[in-house]
Structure formats: structure tokens, C-alpha cells
Amino acid sequence: MVYMQYIKLEEKYDAALAALIRTSLKARGLAIPGTAYFDESLDHLSAFYDDPRRAYYVLLENDTVIGGIGLAEFDGFPSCCELQKLYLADEYQGHGVGYEMIGFIEKTAAEMGYKKIYLETHTNLQAAIHIYERSGFEEIERPDSVVHSTMNKFYLKELT
Q1: Which residue in 46, 53, 112, 158 has the most C-beta neighbors within 10 A?
Q2: What confidence tens digit (pLDDT) does each residue in 1-53 have?
Q3: What DSSP state is assigned to residue 42?
């Protein structure tokens, strides 16, 4: 029986999550400077998200990390957070799990008091862009506060 659950990121999941993120980026030609692939905090994400303005959840299937999604404060817009590091193992893509993950993090963001959610992505990630747009994110101009210099698509959504 397949059993999937969201668990708040703990240190014991850091290595598996970092491996999933790097594998995903490499497969899409994004194992390059200016992406999360080279973030110094990638191997210790639980420490970064140990903050009341941030949250990160791993998606587990039978205690194996198959995905993750998070949010952190974003100063580019008032009352805004950034959807961060949405990754899902390839074999789970195309089954609606990504939409469910976005819905989950939007609900979490609203419960944390955020009014808007921002994200940045890359044109190489066409499946992700499709999901973001179908989830109601609207493309915007590049904000001044972009951290990952390689990202070239930017989106914003009002939370209800």
C-alpha cells in the first residue's frame, strides 16, 4: 500500500532532500551556478527553515523522501512569502501531486499570515511552469530582490 504524508523538515531528511534536488536540477540542465544546486544551505535545509517565518515539508512515501516544498519570507512585496524548492521525484510527476503540494503550501502560507506568494523558476522547467500557471500564478517582471541569478521566470499570486 502506498502511503504519502507531509512531514515538517527535520535534519534526518536533509541529505535525501538535497540529493533529490540536485538530481532533479542536473536532469534539467540546471546544475549550474545561480541555481539552488550550489546553495550553501542545501545540505542543511532544516537549519535554514528553523524560523517562524519559514516552513518546509518533505513528502514521504513509506518513510522515503519523494518530494518537498517550502516557503520563506520575501521582502519584494508586502505580506509576501516565496514558494521555495518544490521538487518531486520524476516517477511521481504527471499524477497531480505537484498541484496538491502547491495547494498545501498556499494553505500553510495563509495560516502563517501571508497575503501573497511569489516564486521564481527557469524556462527549462516547462512542467513546473505549466503547474504554476494552472494554479493561478501570474507572470511578473523580475523583482530587484532575486537571489538565484540564473532564474528567468517570476510569478506572483494573491492568497485567499
Answers
A1: 46
A2: 456 799 999 999 999 999 999 999 899 888 888 788 888 889 999 999 999 99
A3: G
Q: Please give the torsion angle defined by the CA atoms of residues 147, 148, 154 and 155, in that order, rounded to the nearest 10 degrees.
A: -70
Task: State if pTM tops 0.85.
Answer: yes
Number of domains in the chain: 1
Rounded to whole angstroms, the Cα distance separating 45 from 10 reads 9
Question: Residue 48: which CATH number?
Answer: 3.40.630.30
Per DSSP bridges, beta strands 80-88 and 116-121 are parallel
**Residue 53 bridge partners (DSSP):** none
Give Cα separations from 33 to 20, 38, 145, 147 (angstroms).
18, 6, 17, 12
Does residue 143 contact residue 76 with C-beta atoms inside 8 Å? Answer: yes
What range does the domain containing 103 cover? 4-158
Nearest-Å Rg of the Cα atoms of the chain is 15
